[in-house]
Every structure is written in structure tokens, then in C-alpha cells.
Amino acid sequence: MRDSQDELIRPGTTRRGARRGFAAVVLAATLALTSACTGGGGDKGSSWQGGGGESGPKASATITEPAADAKDVPAATAVTFTTKEATETTVELKDSAGAAVEGTLAADGKSWLPEGALKYGETYTATVTATGDDGKPATATSTFTTMAKPGKQVRVTSFLGDNQVVGVGMPLIVKFGRAIPEDYRDDMQRRMTVTAKPAQEGIWHWVSPTEVHYRPKEFWKANSTVTYKVQAGGLPLGDGWYGRSDLTVDVKIGPSFVMTVDNHTKRMTVTKNGKAVKTILVSLGKKSTPSSSGTMVVIEKKRHTVFDTMEELGPEEGYRTEIDYAQRLTWGGEFIHAAPWSEGVQGRTNVSHGCVNVSMKDGAWLFANTRMGDPITVKGTERKLQNGNGWTDWNMSWDEYVKGSALPYEPPAEPGDATGEPSVEPTP
Q: Under 8 Å CB-to-CB from 160, ≥6 apart: which residues?
């Protein structure tokens, strides 16, 4: 696990249906591994050994999954259990050689998830120790064996790599090598956690069966550090397919650099860390090819490129033009870029094919100051931005965005509420 002083951001944890026995949990506070008394081999119930005549413990514990002596257990299994009258509960998992496996306890205190996928074809023993206010421990144990390595595995990838610096509008993007059936997306999402400093509320949104994004409720706070973890290794993902491996990525959010374009004034206002730093004259799309109104982010940057629409538009409308300082905003071909041929009308008339035209000087300045994920909002044009035409996560309201989650959204708990299921929760 990462630094225990980080802040944990996670979606709500309400299960939509108990369609299968496999347990899945959301990561919560890191649990220190402790020694525990053990009961009889493979006993799922509580066990306690005391002196002659001494009463047993008030607390009790029962492991519900994996069942004692279970075979072919998924390598991504959680240890689920119940306790009664316990004031303290610890969980310990050891492999056949006696080596301890690190893991985390769920927020509701009813399950425990290993930090990574277990080994295939290995035997493990789980021990749950419950201690009541009488100070007497009761233990439950379950010895089980994980399944053999599956032949059908789903690859999981991250668009971003470690140590990248991105803009405050950058969504976290995770892709799967195969479509994840809808009934399995909640299990997958429970294994996807985002940790940020400082804490920021956010949620995952399924863009398609093979792609899921994450964004905070508001733009990322400038200069945040973000870690996201996908525990897909060994996780059942439908039709006999299993996640291939776990994934952890560390990124950094850069300064807040936000661009706003108003079609009525034909001007772009640039703010950096909340302060207006520059006003730039622009020319947007003409009436026949209007620019899209909505909130987009910079997808890619090209110092020099060629726009070629001859095949798409034909010889009469098409063009082939060399372009400097190009920054892609949509998959459909809208960019911010330098357009020296329109400098005479920038600030007054729209003449582009949908792009945001700026001068060579301003194009160079923007190119030097922006980064992937910096947001731009265009207002007042004849056409609305279509969701999915680029990274349009911010083109949706928060209420719209949470509808794309496979788990019901639950607002953050009030400070000090240890029983809630917050989207933002400090890690003890």
C-alpha cells in the first residue's frame, strides 16, 4: 500500500445484487497484521481455549468465504466474516509456507481484501480474531486453495503512465482488453480505488464496456498527487474470463490552467491558478462548420502537423494545410491552433472549419503553457458538443456523470462519521 497518510477517494459500496457467491469489497484503512490464536483446523466458527472453569469469550467470529477446505477459489478472493460483540477485529492470511499476506479491511468491517492477487494453485489459511470488552479473543479459521491459472485472461491498461504531469481536467482512463459484462462491472469497480492528496470527491464512470473513466466532482486541485489502483488480477469478469493482473499508477496534477472562449466576444480568457493572466483574440468555426460549445480538455499536442480533409470533404471543400501549435480537443477534428491566415479577422469574424484559431504568437504561448488534460470551455456557438467526441467527462453535470457508475453514488460522510460509506475518506 501507499503512504498511510494519503487520502482515499472511492465510490459507494452498496451491492446491487448477490448474483454469485464471490465476495468483492472496496479498499479502506490499511490493517496491520497481528498474531492471533487459532482454533481447530478448518473450523469456520469461533474457537477459544481457556483454563478449567473459566468462561469463554463474549465475542465470536465466523468466516463465511472462502469456506473451509474450498477448492478453485478465485485468486482475487476476499475474506468475508461476521462477528458478534466484538470491540476489536483482526484478520490474518498466510500461505502454505506461513508467510503473511498484507491486506485491507473494508469500511463496514465485514470483509478483508489482500493487497494483491493471490498465487494460483496455492493453499492459504485465513484467521479472524474477535475480541470483546472482556478482553478474551475468539478466532475462526478457514483453509482454502486457489484455482489454477486460468487460460482466458483480460488485459487491463492505463492510458496514463507513472509520474506524468497532467492538467486539472484530466480524467483517469482504464481500458480492458475485452468487454466487461454489465453484471460484473460493480465487482470490478469495487476493486478500483483512487487516492489523492489533498482529498477530493470523485467517482468512476463507464464510458463503454471496455473503458472506464474517473473524475473528481470539481476540477482536480492544482498540484495534487493522485494514485489509482485496479485490483483486477484473478477477478472473475464473466464467461470464464479473469483479470490478468493488478495495476497501480501514480500521477501528478499540474497548475490550474483553464481556457474559456466566448463566441460573442471572439476572445479567449486564460486563468492560471484562479487568476486571469491573458486575453487572446480568436476566430471560431464559420456557420457551415461551427465550433462545438461545451467543456473539452487538451487530448494531444503537435508542434507541427498537416490537416488533410481531401478524402473526407472532397476536392471542392477539402484542404491540405500545414499547421503549427496544434492542440486536439475532439476526435472529430477540433483543435486550438495557430492560424496566421486569419489573424486579420481574429476577434471579429469566424472563418475556421470548427477549430479555435489564434495568432502565431498566441499559439506559441499557449503551446508552451498547456499540458494534456487542461480544460477549455467554448460558449455561444451554434453546435453543442456531443458527449464522447473527445474526453467529454466535464461536459456532463455531476448528477449526469454519477449515472455512469456501476455502483450507487453515496455522498461523503460527515467528518467523524465512521459508519458511513463516503466517497472521500481519510485513511487512518
A: 166, 170, 172, 173, 249, 251
- Centre a 10 Å sphere on the Cβ of residue 339 and count the other Cβ atoms it contains: 25
Which helix (H) or strand (E) covers residue 398, if one does?
helix 398-402
- CA 213, 219, 224: angle at the middle one, nearest 5? 90
- Per residue in 5-59, pLDDT (tens digit) is 333 343 333 333 334 433 333 333 333 333 333 333 344 566 655 555 578 899 9
Gap between the Cα atoms of 113 and 93, Å rounded: 10
Element (H, E) at 311: helix 310-317
pTM of the predicted model as reported, rounded to 2 decimal places: 0.82
Contact 75, 146 (CB under 8 A): yes
Kindly report, residue by residue over 381-425, the tens digit of the pLDDT.
999 999 999 999 999 999 999 999 999 998 877 544 333 333 333
Are 296 and 385 spatial neighbours (Cβ–Cβ below 8 Å)?
A: yes
Question: In the block, which residue shows the cell 467528518?
Answer: 415
Strand 153-154 to strand 242-243: parallel, antiparallel, or no bridges (unpaired)? parallel
DSSP structure string for 169-197:
TPPEEEEESSPPPHHHHHHHHHTEEEEEE
DSSP 321-357: EEEEEEEE--TTS-EEEE-GGGTTTTTT---BSSSEE
For residue 255, what are the contacts with CB-CB under 8 A and spacing of at least 6?
222, 223, 272, 273
